[in-house]
Amino acid sequence: MSIATAQPAVQSTPISQCAGPWQAMAQLCAPFRRFDPAMLVFDEMRPADMPPWGQSLLVHRQHMTRVLAERYGREVDLYVMEHHSDGRHYSRKIFLTAGRTARAVEYGIARLDLWAMSPPARKEILSRQVPLGAVLMRHSALRRIEPLWFIRIEPDSPLARWMGVRASGEALGRIGVIHCDERPAVEVIEIVTNPLEQERP
After folding, report:
1. Which regions of the chain are under pLDDT 50?
2. DSSP state letter for 28
3. Taking a C-beta distance cutoff of 8 angstroms, is the pair 86, 30 a contact?
């Protein structure tokens, strides 16, 4: 079951105006329960320094929904843990599952400008049944994905636990903006773990 509240602080500074990934993470995580800025202990990474699995999952300009479905050989399913709206802006904390074990393959936060969405897209997003990437691919003719920063999170860190990450190895992620019809419509944190862990019994 997800938690819903009205939250006047959903929108603050656009992450494109943030000085770095720590400020961007703080902006996107702030509306959610039990978030503490002291949790924001992680490393910024250059794409070239990522392991191959991290590069293949994160270093691109495609929707993660599509990339994960291709990697795991089946569509991904959405689970919304918590969501907030101030009427125009909508934030949610999620995880996605895929593959034979249905383990989580992505953890994330998205902050959306609902006014930048068409009414059909907005309705489908708010239904919380379909991953965001799938909705945008259906309803937005012109999309541009702009990764801004790449990060590495220790598996047992306070931030990983708060995000819900369950992995024995490192977790990697990206923070970025999705533009729809050249409007900055969605800001995202997308965290993934090594696909080889999904294949272990």
Report:
1. 1-9
2. H
3. no
